[in-house]
Each structure stands twice: as C-alpha cells, then as structure tokens.
Amino acid sequence: MKKFVKIGAVTVVLTIIFAVILLGGCAPKVNDADANLDFDNMGSKPNAQAIAAATAVDKNKITLSETETTDAKVLESIKYIFLLANENAIAAPFFAAGAYGTGEAKINWGKGGKIVGKMDTREMRIFDNGEYFFDSFGLVVGGEEIKADGSKGSVPDFLVQALSSVLNFTERVYSPDNKNFYLSTNGKENENSLKNFPSYNAIEYSKPKATKYTLAEYEKTKFYRESYKGITTDNLDIENSITKGSITYDASTGIYRVDCYINCEDERVLEMSIKSMKKSSGTDTFKYASKHLTMEIWDCGLIKNYINSNVWEATLLPTSFKLKGSSDNYYEQRFTYNKSDVKIMAIPQDLAKALMH
Fold first, then answer.
1. Buried b (16+ CB within 10 A) or exposed e, 189-227
2. d(Cα 199, Cα 334) in Å, to the nearest integer?
3. d(CA 126, CA 96)
4. How many degrees, rounded to 5, is the angle at CA 295 between CA 293 and CA 301?
5. Residue 332: what are its φ and ψ, rounded to 5°?
6. 194 membership: H or E segment, kind and range
7. How crowded is the C-beta side of 96, counted as CA atoms within 13 Å?
8. End-to-end CA, the chain
9. Which of 186, 323, 344, 348 is most buried by its number of CB atoms within 10 A?
10. pLDDT at 30
11. For residues 79 and 60, what is the distance between their CA atoms, to the nearest angstrom?
C-alpha cells in the first residue's frame, strides 16, 4: 500500500506538470458558458477616424485564390496581409478586443489509455491613446479518461482539483502611459467567471498586488516579438513561414479573408511562442505539430477578427515515465475601433488605480 501511494503521488505530480505544458492555463464544476463575442460591437466596421489612421491594403500586392494553394504569389499576399494588419494594430490610437479560447489536452496514461483535460479561456484588451488594460483568465472545465478499448471513464475528483489549483490562471495588466506596466496574477475565479465575462467582476481581485515593469521589461517578460499591441508574435516575415493557404475578397463588405497554415518545422517562425512555453513548462521537447490561422481584415488595413487553431506535442523530461501527449487549442479574437460604441470594455479606472498601488 505504501509503495502504491508513493508511485501514485509521483505520477500525479508528473501529470500535473505535463498538463501545464499542454494546457498552459485552465475549475471543476464551473459554469461552462457559451462564448459570446457580440458585446460592444466586436467586429464592427471601423469609423472614419480609425480608417484614416491606418494604412490601407494595396490591391496591387494581392493575388487572390478561393482554393487552398502553395502558389508563391498567394502565400506572399497572405504574408503581406498579416504583416500589414499587425502594423496597423500597433499604430492604432484606439482599439478594443475580446477573445475566447478552448483547449483539450490528451495525455498518454496507463496501458494504452489517455486522460483528457478540457479548458476555457477568456480575454479582453483595450488600448486608448497610450492607456492600456488587459484582462485574461483560464479555467479547467472538465476531464475524462479514455481507456485502451475506447471506453470512457471519469477522472478522479482529487486529480481534477489538483489540476485546477495548478492550471487555473488570472492575469490583469494596466499601463497609464505606454511606459510603465502593472501586472497582477493574484485574481480568484469562481464558478460563474465564464458566464460573467466580459464583466470585470468575473474575476475577484480583493487586494490587487501588481509588479511594475518598464515597457521593455514587460515585452521581454511576456515574449512579445515586436509590440504588446500586435496581433501575433510569429515571425511571418521570414522565408517559407506559410506553407499553404487561400485569400478571398468580398467587395460588398470590403473584407479580405485569409486562411493559412504556418510552417511548424522551422522553429524560427514560432520562436517567441516556443520560448515562452519552454520557459513556463521546463521542457525542451515542446513542439507545434500544426498551426492554422484565419483572419478577416477590412480593406482599410484594420483587422476584424483573428482565429488561431493549433496542436502542440511534448514529452516530460527527465523521467522514466516518458509521459507524452498533445493539445488541440482554439482561440478567437474580435476587434472594434469605435470608442463611442464601447461601454462594457471601457478601461475601469478604479481597477486601474488599484493596480498602481
């Protein structure tokens, strides 16, 4: 009996650590509310002021293709669209964005079986002429065991509780001036957090404690490639960063739609994301197995929405257990540039001031 307890405890610890690698953040019996990004006109057409501040899409640089292709001209067009959207997001005097994510991690377990953990995340970002607010949290929303014969079983409550205590995360950031950043990770979620999003009361920060960073320190700590305001940290400007994709244009709406696959074999492309995951997980075997991006961008050059679907793989080392697994993740983010429409996502000054003390 003592021997079983010892081995079981070690295995549980390893599973928890490995789940950190796969889920990267994710409470049992929470209210797994349906994601809703329709608040505050997310994805609405930019106003004249926002359009004037952006660099429009140069149609002469675009080669359209309704079907998925490896044609070099189409891939260069996709790359151009992504880089332009990123530059315009960084330069925008105002934007607000809401996002949700889902994830499912499969961990090899027992004799051919797997443990499947599920998570949900929520996120919002607001940049208003130098003032910035970011709110994000993730919760474990369930788990199950899939046995070697395909039958399913429940994950023990103690394991779900352990995973939740390790993986559930909160993060709140405020900058009053684009120079100093106050980061707090001591929020406390409850069973209604997902349902209450995007209310700032979704996560409780009873006594906010924030660490102060300079702009350079904050971007380095969070592994931003170019700017914390950007839509991606991927190095899409290097050669062969995109393997295949399509790009279409709807003249009636003025929207370009891009679907593409990112080169996961060349780690230079996903350098910052990989560095971030390796640091947080303590493994050298983390790898993206696939990454698919979808983006809609207005012809004025401003992003409408962004979807990132990816699969990770990793092995926990060093250990004789050689736990392996993969994680399928989905992340969708929608933008608005119309400050007059934003009510829910206005920067909360009481919370902002609390973070600065």
1. beeebbebbbebebbebeebebeebebeebbeebbbbee
2. 17
3. 4
4. 140
5. -125, 135
6. helix 193-196
7. 20
8. 51
9. 323
10. 66
11. 14
Write the pLDDT tens digit of every residue in 199-225. Answer: 998 998 877 689 999 999 999 999 898
Assigned domain for 232 exists: yes
In terms of phi and psi (left: phi > 0; alpha: psi -120 to 50; beta: otherwise), the region of 223 is: left
Q: What's the structural domain count of the chain? A: 1
Can you tell me whether residue 191 is helix, strand or coil?
Answer: coil
Residue 42 lies in a domain: no
Residue 167 lies in a domain: yes
Question: Please, where are the H alpha helices in 92-192?
Answer: 157-167
The closest of 219, 136, 228, 132 to 185, measured between CA atoms, is 136
23 vs 328: CA distance, rounded Å: 9
- The better pLDDT of the pair 8, 210 is held by 210
**335-357: b or e for each residue (b if 16 or more CB lie within 10 Å)?**
bbbbbeebeebebbeebbebbee
| DSSP annotation of 34 | P
Phi, psi of 196 (to 5 degrees): -80, -20
Q: Average pLDDT, stretch 42-65?
A: 96
Query: For residues 208 and 187, what is the distance between their CA atoms, to the nearest angstrom?
Result: 8
The better pLDDT of the pair 104, 26 is held by 104
CA 189 to chain centre: 18
Domain span at 18:
2-31+54-355
Written as six digits, the tokens of 147 are: 């046995």
Q: Which two tokens stand for residue 105?
A: 């991690």
- Rounded Cα–Cα distance for residues 234 and 228 (Å): 13
Neighbours of 8 (CB within 10 A): 10
Amino acid at 124: M
Which residue would you say has higher pLDDT here, 249 or 168? 249
- CA Rg, the chain, in Å? 21
Residue type at 276?
S
> Which H helix or E strand runs over 355?
helix 349-355
The dihedral formed by the CA atoms of 356, 203, 281 and 114, expressed in degrees to the nearest 10: 180
In this structure, is residue 107 part of a structural domain?
A: yes
Q: How confident is the model at residue 10 (pLDDT cuts 50, 70, 90)?
A: very low
The C-alpha atoms of residue 142 and residue 67 are separated, in whole angstroms, by 37
